Amino acid sequence: MNNASVTVYRVEAFLLDGVPGLEEYQSALFAVFLLVYLVTFAGNLLIVILVIRDRSLHTPMYFFLCNLSFVDIIIPTVIIPKLLAVLVANDKYISFAGCFVQMYAVLAFGSTEWFLLIVMSYDRYVAIVKPLHYHVIIKPGACVVLAGAAWGLGLLAPLLPVARMLIGWRGKAAMRSPPTGSEKREGAGQHIRAAGMMPGGGE
């Protein structure tokens, strides 16, 4: 029986390179991404405030639009601050747990946005096809249920894939045949490089 070797790599953090090849333009990229983020944040926040404060906008369509704008505030807020830190503060490390939390948040709120768009499409469908029954079908209670379903499905949809990926990263060992001498040296080099990528690690 051939002996099989097991190589286990414990990943503690990831190194983010930012935008490779454009290192000399990092300040300009920082300004562009910051401007886009601020415009996106301010625009969607303005929609949320207007819908809440203006009673004439208290309709199903604007209720769903308010939810959509709130999601559009969260998604870039999950991504852009870390990107800006990579570009300007040279903070290029993200922890293993932080990476998976960020990935789950992007997938969850991205899924929520899609479900909200489906709900908004249904709202417009009823308004166009059955205008006389619109206020009977799309009642305030129904709006809350539809929006709650969109949020619930969106937050639950990526839970299983992310959990399976997390278990795979933490629990799997790469099993292969006994390595040759060159493979041993290559594997050792990769281990040292991975250690050097850890905060405070040396190459």
Q: Can you offer a commentary on this structure?
A:
- The chain has 203 residues and is mainly alpha-helical.
- The chain has a single domain, classed as Up-down Bundle (Rhopdopsin 7-helix transmembrane proteins), CATH 1.20.1070.10.
- The protein has helices spanning 26-53, 60-88, 96-129, 134-137, 140-156, 159-171, 181-196; strands at 5-7, 13-15, 93-95, 174-176.
- A two-stranded antiparallel sheet has the order 1-4. It has a two-stranded antiparallel ribbon with strand order 2-3.
- The model is unreliable at 172-203 (pLDDT under 50).
Task: Write down the overall mean pLDDT.
Answer: 78
Q: CATH superfamily assignment?
A: Rhodopsin 7-helix transmembrane proteins
Major sheet, described briefly? 2 strands, antiparallel
List low-confidence stretches: 172-203
Strand order of the largest sheet: 1-4
The H-and-E topology, N to C, reads as EEHHEHHHHEH
Q: Which CATH architecture?
A: Up-down Bundle
Structural class: mainly alpha
Question: N-to-C terminal Cα separation, in Å?
Answer: 38 Å
| Number of individual domains | 1
Keywords: Cell membrane, G-protein coupled receptor, Membrane, Olfaction, Receptor, Sensory transduction, Transducer, Transmembrane, Transmembrane helix
Pfam family, one: 7tm_1
Organism: Huso huso
Transmembrane segments: 28-52, 64-87, 93-120, 141-160
